[in-house]
Amino acid sequence: xxxxxxxxxxxxAAALLQLVGTLSILAFVPGNAMKxxxxxxxWAVTFRSFSRREVLCFVGVSVLFATMDAMAVAQGIxxxxxxxxxxxxxxEYFMWGFYVLHVLRTLDGPAPPRNFRLALPxxxxxxxxxxxxxxxxxxxxxxxVALAPALWFFHDRSDLTYIGYTVLVGALVEYVGVWSGxxxxxxxxxxxxxxxxxxxxxxIGLFIRRLVMPLVVSxxxxxxxxxxxx
Length: 230
Prior knowledge:
Layout: H1 13-28, H2 32-47, H3 52-75, E1 79-80, H4 92-107, H5 116-132, H6 136-153, H7 157-179, E2 183-184, H8 197-216
Antiparallel strand pairs: 1-2
Helix pairs in contact: 1-2, 1-7, 3-4, 5-6, 5-8, 6-8, 7-8
């Protein structure tokens, strides 16, 4: 059986350019419209082409996470400094589609066997704290508890790789975004970023692999150990 190593892979030059370029546009390009133009140009050049499944993934993920972002802003979990299209800046409506495709393209692992009847309920449980809990400390605890069942079932080496890389990307995005004044968290957490970002981005990485990949990746699957038992 072949599997991805239990370490973060070396990032290719194009993926590194894409990530650094995206963070640079986020931090330094003035104005929401100009940021969006910069993102679109950079992503078009670095992604080069998109399959139909990737386009549908980008659109679906963007709509889902824009809705969740708007709900989080309404609850006061965080807020954007310069919203101009509802509670969000115009570029935020496209960011999560990019993050998911970036992770998929960069890690480029084989899709695991489909198990939506297990993965989807676990994903729903994972999202619940972000819909109802507003206290940062409680959100960290409850999101970790909500993520635990998913890790109980899905914890092979590839799962851990996707979690680790997505947390790394999330840390870069969060600290660049906060330190450059794009958004902020209440109660002035250490470093400006609420620590629940770790469980949030980690869970997203896990479900990118377990929910999104089987729908997007069209290449034949290699046989993987699924780690459905603890």
